[in-house]
From TrEMBL:
GO CC annotation terms, alphabetical: cytosol; protein-DNA complex
Matching InterPro entries: CheY-like_superfamily, OmpR/PhoB-type_DNA-bd, Sig_transdc_resp-reg_C-effctor, Sig_transdc_resp-reg_receiver, WalR-like, WH-like_DNA-bd_sf
The entry's DNA-binding region: 134-233
SMART domains: REC, Trans_reg_C
Transmembrane annotation, as ranges: none
Keywords: Cytoplasm, DNA-binding, Phosphoprotein, Transcription, Transcription regulation, Two-component regulatory system
Protein name: DNA-binding response regulator
Molecular functions (GO terms): phosphorelay response regulator activity; transcription cis-regulatory region binding
Residue ranges constituting the Response regulatory domain according to the UniProt record: 3-115
Major place of residence: cytoplasm
Subcellular location: Cytoplasm
SUPFAM superfamilies associated with the record: C-terminal effector domain of the bipartite response regulators, CheY-like
Residues modified as 4-aspartylphosphate: D51
Amino acid sequence: MAKLLLVDDDVELVELLAELLKLEGFEVDTANNGQQALDKIDAGYDLVLLDIMMPVLNGIETLKQLRQRFSVPVMMLTARGNEIDRVLGLELGADDYLPKPFNDRELVARIKAILRRTAAATPTATENKMQEESQCVEFCGLILYPGRQQAIYEGLDLELTGTEFALLQILIANPGQILSREYLSMEVLGKPLMPFDRAIDMHMSNLRKKLPKRTDEISWFKTLRGRGYLLVAEK
């Protein structure tokens, strides 16, 4: 059973959503501001649903502090049309966002999409080091360990979020191929690309910031306007 932390200052909404999510089979804890969330959060949560506009500590500052301690997936709940909050959330490592008001079915579908992705990368108790090493993926000095969602370059842990790792993994699996934003949105975020949706672009921007310069001195990625992204193949 997946364990969720729902953080929102709207007490009535929190109660309604908590009941809905419990009926869907999730275990749900709640908090009514960012400080409460930080006080109770630990490594046991599978996903955090985090509202932006809250008293005491808003969602953006909460996410910033959360990312200093945990890599748990985070979905931001944002006011419809508030592009600045969405961009800031994605820059700070949020995995996805959902504008309010939202449809209950869409919320559940988005949650399940994120959990499917992270569950696929969660190592089982029976996995050992040999199995993990055999599953690793290498590209131009970059080593990906899918079992623990870890990316290493020249001995440096890139400290990617789950979404950043999934995006890098799919690009490495298709070197030199143009992958459309629509395709990446479905494969990585589990949702169709909507007009003015910049989530994939922001995750790509975060990847570029975290990846050190390649030893062959060429760019990791190319952006093809109106077409998508590609991972530049080795020389």
